[in-house]
Write a structure and sequence with these properties.
It holds the Pfam family YgbB. With 159 residues, this protein is an alpha+beta fold. The chain contains five helices and seven strands, in the order ββββαααβαβαβ. The protein has one domain: 2-Layer Sandwich (60s Ribosomal Protein L30, Chain: A), CATH 3.30.1330.50. Helices cover 30% and strands 33% of the residues. It starts with a strand and ends with a strand. The structure holds the ligand Nc1ccn([C@@H]2O[C@H](COP(=O)(O)O)[C@@H](O)[C@H]2O)c(=O)n1 and 2C-methyl-D-erythritol 2,4-cyclodiphosphate.
Length: 159
Amino acid sequence: MDFRIGQGFDVHAFGEGDHLMLGGVRVAHARGVVAHSDGDVVVHALCDAMLGALALGDIGRHFPPSDPQWKGADSLAFLRHCDGLLRARGWRVGNADLTVICELPKLGPHVEAMRRTLAAALGVEIDAVSVKATTTERLGFSGRGEGIAAQAACLLVRA
Ligand SMILES: Nc1ccn([C@@H]2O[C@H](COP(=O)(O)O)[C@@H](O)[C@H]2O)c(=O)n1
Ligand SMILES: C[C@@]1(CO)OP(=O)(O)OP(=O)(O)OC[C@H]1O
């Protein structure tokens, strides 16, 4: 088999703070998120997609929220670890497509930095990483500004 596919989804509630970590990029915002780690929904969704592609469980299995060593952790470290798991099995990310779901902040100005950061962490070309943003037209928890979500799809190819 030459390809594997995975998908991931993550949500964090907004809480105290003045910035969000999204795709490894610090984005100024009137709120932070409630999370055990740095709460980077984009990276968490991508990790789950990568793990899912090889049926390796999910991010919480590899980095349990009950484990104090992950408190405040840089989620890019999770991503590098997941990439290492894939590469140890002979796979790498062929491409990944990410959607961030929030009313605010507006993410257009940050998309290229996220693509660059994620591609560097995965050791792939920037063209292999897509980051998109959408609102939910003010509907639901995201529309009410209660939190932020991200979806990820990724294809693995032979390294
Ligand atoms: N947080 C966001 C949400 C959306 N965008 C950009 O706006 C476009 C329109 O959003 P709709 O939800 O009305 O479809 C979207 O395609 C994004 O380009 C954004 O930058 N940040
Ligand atoms: C990332 C981990 C790390 O403990 O905790 P959180 O930052 O709370 O994020 P979540 O998306 O709930 O994933 C579970 C955990 O693996």
